[in-house]
Design a protein that fits this description.
Helix 3 (about 105-115) runs parallel beside helix 5 and helix 5 runs parallel beside helix 6. Helix content is about 40%, strand content about 25%. It has helices at about 40-50, 80-85, 105-115, 120-140, 160-170, 190-205, 215-220, 240-245, 250-255; strands at about 5-15, 15-25, 30-35, 55-60, 65-70, 90, 175-180, 210, 225-230, 230-235. By secondary structure, it is α/β, with parallel strands linked by helices. The chain is globular. The two termini are about 35 Å apart. It contains 9 helices and 10 strands. The strands form 2 sheets. It has a 6-stranded mixed β-sheet with strand order 6-7-8-3-9-10, sandwiched between helices. Strands 2-1-4-5 form a 4-stranded antiparallel β-sheet, covered by helices on one side.
């Protein structure tokens, strides 16, 4: 059974259709990269999947359960909406760290807030907080940031900030990680710091959707690549098929204009 099914997703902003009948599915542990020109609908797709935007049409099915149906979208709000959002970890282009908190505090903030809703929280507050902090330190250490726990975002490089952002998303134990061009705001020489962390997640079989302009990375890490154009999935397949034997003229033109 597929872990994620996207069926006939549609989204418009005013009179502009950004997503047009988008459908695909993915298996647990699969890495899917989404490529395409600016304005092709890649980011909007991620934002609709993660409930940061509400799709106008279609369904989102996770582990066989319909978590979004546009026909019944008005019924999804409050606690249910947040529950659905927490199934996905979202890493933004521009880090979006809280500047007033250290790297460690950025990672533990959301888990601590959620922990307060546990029925055993009052009785076990110190133990729960200690476990959250320990996990955050483990994540930051795995990301090569063991010496940056107490540093504020302004004291970190762009690559370090993005690695903190990845740890923050992982701290909530998402079922699927979503990356929206995670290296687009970084200098080329530090891009590999972030790509290395994402590659390690792929090696651990984390289910991921990665919107990226790093074609070589997409080819080497992905199980499947989706090419979006004009709000539709114009072509999809294994990386070797997409990059070495593109079928459509539009994909051929796109690849001829990007750096591999």
């Amino acid at each position: 059974m597929a872990i994620l099914e996207i069926k006939n997703l549609e989204k418009s902003f005013d009179k502009t259709k950004v997503l047009k009948d988008v459908s695909f599915q993915m298996e647990k542990g699969e890495v899917v990269s989404v490529i395409g020109s600016s304005g092709s609908g890649k980011t909007t797709l991620l934002r609709c999947i993660s409930f940061l935007e509400k799709a106008d049409g279609g369904e989102i099915i996770l582990n066989g359960e319909t978590i979004f149906d546009a026909k019944q979208a008005k019924q999804i709000k409050g606690a249910k909406m947040r529950e659905n959002q927490l199934k996905f970890g979202f890493v933004f282009q521009n880090f979006n760290l809280f500047p007033q908190y250290t790297a460690l505090e950025n990672v533990i903030l959301a888990p601590r807030l959620i922990a307060k809703e546990r029925p055993d929280f009052k009785a076990n507050k110190d133990k729960i907080y200690a476990e959250i902090t320990e996990k955050a330190k483990e994540l930051l250490t795995r990301a090569g940031l063991s010496d940056k726990f107490d540093n504020y975002p302004c004291e970190l490089s762009g690559g370090q900030q993005q690695r903190v952002a990845i740890c923050r998303a992982l701290a909530l134990n998402p079922e699927i990680m979503l990356f929206d061009e995670p290296t687009s705001a970084l200098d080329p020489e530090i891009t590999n710091e972030v790509l290395k962390v994402i590659k390690s997640l792929a090696d651990e079989h984390m289910t991921m959707i990665i919107v990226t302009h790093e074609m070589a990375f997409a080819m080497n890490v992905s199980d499947r690549v989706i090419f979006m154009d004009g709000g539709v999935i114009a072509e999809e397949g294994a990386p070797c098929e997409i990059f070495k034997n593109p079928k459509s003229k539009r994909l051929q033109d796109f690849l001829s204009n990007v750096r591999m």
